[in-house]
Amino acid sequence: MAEVRSISTTTVRTVNPVGESVDRIELTPWDLQLLSLGPIQKGLFFLKPTPSQQEQLLRSTTTTTIVDHLKSSFSRALYFFPPLAGRLGITEHDDSTSSFFIDCNNAGADFIHAVVDNVTISDVLDPIFVPRIVHSFFPLNVLPNYEGISKPLLAVQVTELVDGFFIGCTMNHAVVDGSSFWNFINSWSEISRGSHSISRPPVFDRWFPTGVGCPIRIPFTLKEKEDTFFPPSLEERVFHFTKAKIAALKAKANAETGTSTISSLQALLAHLWVSVVRCQSISPDQEVRYTLLISARGRLKNSSLPEGYFGNTVHPTAITTTAGELLEKGVNRAALEMNKAIALQTSDQNGLATSSSPRFDMYGNDFGWGKPVAVRSGSANKKDGKMTLFPGVEEGSIDVEVCLTPEKLVSMGEDKEFMEAVTI
């Protein structure tokens, strides 16, 4: 495929001076654990607007192109999210520890306009494996979160294809989780459609566990950079599961385990886990692990953590067993173990990890000329066994972006038991 050409890069600040209500935001334990990881990278494909749609969208603005309109509305959206126009701040202490915070200094976010010639949306979406060019649709690649001290906490790249646009967003993961990420995108699309306010204002008050002092000191200095790790060749494939297929997996899992508490998502993830293990030539007594990233929103008892909380509320929970036991007991038992692990939440190579959520509003992001036609993610935090969840285009459906070595993905595609639940 053709290469992506950068047309322009602009530092975008809020349209008005940031108010005094938010100036410095301390990082919590949830935030700090992500400093050495990569950012969140998610993006949306849109068909190009028709001439009449474009004329209607730009009629009441001073902009003359879709890209300029997106840049203008991006600046207005940042007014409601001043942390994203700031930088990370660091205080290094005499005891070799450091404290991190968000400096809401309006240093600005990046807005990049790019073009890729002779590539259509179908050229990207139709292949069985996700083309590598998708990673070039995102800015700030190969950048750990602690680099937010000098680099933008938010960058957007609008890439023009022959028949559409891709809006790729990279956001510092030490500053936001998936819920906060999509709240910004949802709010930006609202403003792009002409709204002067947003439906879900972010809440910047910090939440710290009882007994944890603030600011938190951690044994981290900027000199302690890890060596760059180059993973083996990996491929990505998106598997689509319809609402009906998911319902069948759920019903079977609950019926065969004698319960009614296994959710649709738990049954689906168990189905994926068993297939991945089944498609590998590993010893039956070898340990296998599935890491679930569980949000604390709505789970913490006696806390004032609001739904609009801006920041991270996610912590990992691992389910561990052996390959032999997993394959012997099957999907339904795996789903039950996931259900138990999630219910307990109140305050490597043979491992899988799930990020994102089909509950996030991705397909409701209409920037003024129609809803997206697909969602994709960038290269950040990709490893062998990474599963990324998206809602499907059809209501109730789910897309799972699976990142594995090529031979494992090929085996999954040939796994009849697994593919019976997949809709191509």
Automatic annotation (TrEMBL):
<dbReference type="InterPro" id="IPR023213">
    <property type="entry name" value="CAT-like_dom_sf"/>
</dbReference>
<keyword id="KW-0808">Transferase</keyword>
<dbReference type="Pfam" id="PF02458">
    <property type="entry name" value="Transferase"/>
</dbReference>
<dbReference type="GO" id="GO:0016740">
    <property type="term" value="F:transferase activity"/>
</dbReference>
<protein>
    <recommendedName>
        <fullName>HXXXD-type acyl-transferase family protein</fullName>
    </recommendedName>
</protein>
<dbReference type="InterPro" id="IPR051283">
    <property type="entry name" value="Sec_Metabolite_Acyltrans"/>
</dbReference>
